[in-house]
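Example record for the data management plan.
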Amino acid sequence: MDITTALEKLGRKALMSRLGLSKQSLSAVTNGTFPASWYAVVQELADEKGIEVPDHLFNFKKPATQEQA
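Corresponding structural encoding:
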């Protein structure tokens, strides 16, 4: 699943309402991931609709590797 499919299945209006977002704010999710801070709301809505939104669609901070340290 990609971000566009997730938005279609969740319902843009429902997500905007739950998060208190404007259409422009939701449209700003163009990098292919949801902000990590939206996780609980997105998962709650997904549970209600009986769909799964995979974790890779959220921009969680990744652990540093030894090469980066």
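Summary line stored alongside the record: The chain has four helices and no strands.
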